[in-house]
Amino acid sequence: MQARTKKTYRDLWRQRTQVIAVGITIALGVMLYVATAGAFQNLTVSYEQTYDRLAFADLTALGGDSEAVVQAALDAGAEQAITRTQVDPPMLIGDTKLLGRVVGLPTDGRAAVDDVGVIEGSYLDSGATDEVLVERHAADTFDLAVGDTLQVYSATGWQDVTVQGIVESAEYLWPARSRQDALSDPHSFAVLYASEDAVQSWAGTGPNQVQVLLPSGDDDALEADVTAAMESAGATSVTTQLEQASHATLNEDLEGFDEMSKAFPALFLIAAGVAAWVLLTRRILQERPVIGTMMAAGARRGRVLRHYLGQGLIIGLAGAIVGAALGALANGAITSAYTGALGIPDTVVETHPWMIALGLVFGAVVGMLGALGPAIVASRTSPAQAMRPVADASPPGPWSRFVARRQGLPVGLRMALRDVARSKRRTFATMLGSVLALVLVLASAGMMVSIMDAIRTQFDDVVLSDAAVAAQPGTEMLSTLEGVDGVDVVETTMSGSVTVISEDGSYATSLTGYETDTIMHGFRDSSGEAVTLPEDGILVGLAMQDMLGVEVGDTVTLSTDAGDLQAAIEGFVDEPMGTAVYASLATATEALGSASVDQFALTLDDGVDRDAMRDTITGLDGVVAYQDQRAILSSVEQYLGLFWAFIGVMVLLGAVLALAVMYVTMAVNVVERTGELATLRAAGVPLRRVAGAIATENMLATVIAVPFGLVLGVVAADGFLQTFNNDIFSLSIDWPWWSLPAAALGVLLAALVSQWPASRQIARVDIARVVRERAS
Amino acid sequence: MSTDTTVATDRGVRVTGLTKVFGEGDSAVHALKGIDLDIPSGELVVILGPSGSGKTTLCNIIGGIETSTDGKVEVAGVDISDVAPAKLSDFRRDHVGFIFQFFNLIPTLTARENVEVIMEMTGRGDKARAPEALEAVGLGDRMDNFPSQLSGGQQQRVAVARALATDPDILFADEPTGALDLPTGQQILGLLQDLNRQGRTIIIVTHNVSVAQIADRVITLVDGQIASIERHDSPADAADVTW
Chain B: residue nearest A422 by CA? Predict the structure, then answer.
């Protein structure tokens, strides 16, 4: 082994605790990268495998003559195009009445587009009209098994059907009725598949959808061509795969995951780079005479540079190897946990060698970048200068002079105040560790806070009704519901699917009509101010302003099964979940035509038993569906446990980050001032006072960093959140008063804890050795 | 000039059978090999010896910043032979002061603050008397200067004032002139001599034979053992010492 290699290993061994701290930070960064980026790749592939296997439609068209639209799609280059019928009829599953969805499937073969995968039971028998396949989520929610029976409300009344099989579908990996109902009460929605003939017969209509599959490897141009062709053939709305409700919702999650897989590792790697910089700068300052001697003996600058870069490289690679190994293990665990939690049928776990290689490169680069500055300084060292004793000859700056005049302060505090400015590199590193920890914690906590705030806003300020009821037309349901004990107020509503068309584009969503003085829904603009529902015209979700290029006063076309209606936009509403259209009952009725069911919104008395109310109302003659608007809250609360776990892990990692960086800077602080500390100890100053003085200095640096960390953390959290904002979610952060102080307190506590190893290091300072070395 | 090996002690130093071994087994280094020594209160003693003779180790053990392997050490009436290292800081605070070759001043504190910080952090001494301590070492007009604004001799004077901050019974000076030129070194030795004349016990560790001229007694160590103890009935004045 070459002498300089031995020197490198021994140097690193002498500073092993600091080297380990830097290595751990790098390892965490690389681990997070390999684990999250790998899981992101795996999840993407898992989705794609399911989509390919089940022939998930690339485009879905509504409106027009279905056969003509199919032909137009095929002529424009589509690989497959089929028609099907889809309706949202009332259902009775057990004792639960709900508005479900029935989708037609061929029985003389399998669907070429949007097929289903049979998990239990078997596929529909040829010609069967009383068999259904139940989508997996509905089967789980309602505990349905093969052979069970349920009822579907048809044009001719309730139809008894038997469960032939339980199936999975690419369209309902996330069971959402529409983009506007991405999060809803699972008991309010179920998807059944029946023979195409049966569905047409129950609905009393012909095919109303066209599903299109493009050739694999299709490009945007072909997608645009096929879309244009179908629209020319009469389709009023064409939804891409990216806009499909389930895919769009899951994609939101995946994109957030993608952001996280870049941002969080970056925080750790930056911190590790700075810690390595502090560590190696200290080593080079300590070795100035050695460097000077080597250069005086003729060592070339390049060799000195490489020597110290090599130290950074070793630290970086060591951390990266550990991180990559842990990341590869965590990758599979995260992927499986994710697909398991969301019920993604196909789980593909692959370890990507290029990703591990990239992780190793990240670690090596971070280590070398951290070493670069100190190594350059070392290589430019003047031998004569380096071999002179290092003296702190720098004159006192304005800050030192200012503090010196504050004679009323204890000297220990004055010392700490001045030491903050004494080694700017060390103070900067301590501050950076604190800032990055705060960014990590706040970016994570921001997600939590915003989601909780969105839920609160949605159910406290927007959805003001407690339940929605659908009833057979012609029943005197309004007065019946008003007479139910525990029901406070009942209003008639009307809701249906609509495509909003402007000159710049179209958007498929829902249209809901309310009384203009409704108390069932709160309309609020982007500043939170109340907006009045107009007698004429419509209110539309804020996201449509950009998507459709429209402004208040513009006229758009509302296209529904009942035809087209021109309506003026009277205002935009800002709602956390979904982008919908609202109108007065009169306008909604004009747009949607006669409804297959009567709809009502109700508020309940405070403290009413909601389960009992569900049973009471669904038991009323004529009621075909009941939806508890607040039931979603209980489902959301189930997911909150996962969110808290996520936040907990991130806070823990933030603490590790802060601890690791601060430990390195404090350890270096102690090493750089061994002489001073030994002198104080030799004079009989107790250990706790010496450690306290160092701790005061480090805590001061942390305190100074806190405002910067809070500002950057809030900005980072907001930026992170923006990646989630679209027409499905409109999230914003309204930080609770306690959150920022709590985050600051957490980092200060982490800083305080990191004093412990530093104080142990002070305790280990061998006063006699220091004195002997200096006296010899 | 006279030579003796036993001196009565009151607030001074009594060392009996002192040994110090660094390391173990084949690599063990016997730094001190059974030292017996008495230093009465009020003496100015120079411990002289070449590098590796054990003089700094002896000084460190008597000063309570290092523990012995064997033997008994009594300083200012306190037996520190078996005192735990953590408790030794109380002993140092109450009884001894140190002056080092390279001053070891805290560069971010002024001269006055370098003295005050010891008083404040040990809880011993009156901070209001820090200026007096600096005036006593001739730095009354430079007490608000930072170390970087002081010469080497001035810095060592601050170190002396700092060592006196806790009013120690014994002052240890380890190569106090090692980093200074002759005139400045003479000034520091003069200062130590003045302090001794005021009744302070002073132990100087040095390899500089010339410095030994100012001592009441010179203890020469060679290879961890006392080679000789020499008494000066009329120590030289610091201003007359040259090297």
Answer: B108
